[in-house]
Amino acid sequence: MIEGYGPHGSDRKERKKLEAYWLSTLGVLALCLLSVALAVYSGSSKGFAGKLSGPVMPADDDNPLYRIDRVHMNSVEALAPFVMPVVLAMMVGVGPLTLAALVWAHVAIRLVHMIIYLRGGNAAKGGSVRTILYVSGALVTLVLVLVTGWAALR
After folding, report:
1. Given CB 3.0 to 4.6 Å as the disulfide criterion, which of 17, 76, 89, 100 pairs with 94?
2. What is the dihedral of CA 61, 67, 72, 75, to 10 degrees?
3. Contact at 8 Å (CB) between 74 and 117?
4. φ, ψ at 5 (rounded to 5°)
5. Is the pLDDT of residue 1 over 60?
6. Cβ pair 110, 136 in contact under 8 A
7. Which DSSP category does 63 fall into?
8. Cα(first)–Cα(last) distance of the chain, in Å?
9. Which CATH number fits domain 10-153: 3.40.630.30, 1.20.120.550, 2.60.120.620, 3.30.70.1150?
């Protein structure tokens, strides 16, 4: 066997390196689980209301089915642009605690965004708290991209 390869070589070193990111991995899995749960909630809500899958009409923040559908779509839209930089951050060696802080900040923002959007009212309308939370999540993603890019260039 070639030195450094196989079950006792570089594979073990890579596994150890990735183990340092366990907290970030749990955060990413939480985001994925949230998206799946919202998909089930959206689909079942439409089914119980006798609606077909697809866009909900009227497209109005006062319509609970619309809010459920939109919070699910927002979670899907935010997932890939966040998860890909997380994976790249692990590959280029961003500090595990730095990455975990960014991941869990994003998870917290997404959870509060979901709660406010589902609850409805003025805070759930566009241009209010909901929008601030969505933009905050996007800013965390931007910071993650910059930190990951910086680590890749070092």
Report:
1. 89
2. 40
3. yes
4. -120, 160
5. no
6. no
7. -
8. 33
9. 1.20.120.550
Lowest mean pLDDT among 11-15, 25-29, 101-105, 128-132: 11-15
Please indicate whether residue 124 or residue 67 has the higher confidence score (pLDDT).
67
Q: Is the pLDDT of residue 11 over 80?
A: no
CA distance 47 to 81: 30
Q: Is the dihedral of CA 106, 28, 79, 71 positive or negative?
A: negative
- The answer, as to whether pTM is greater than 0.90, is no
pLDDT of residue 124: 77
Place of tokens 């280029």: 92
Q: Is 59 buried (19+), middle (13-18) or exposed (0-12) by CB count in 10 A?
A: exposed
Q: How does DSSP classify residue 128?
A: S
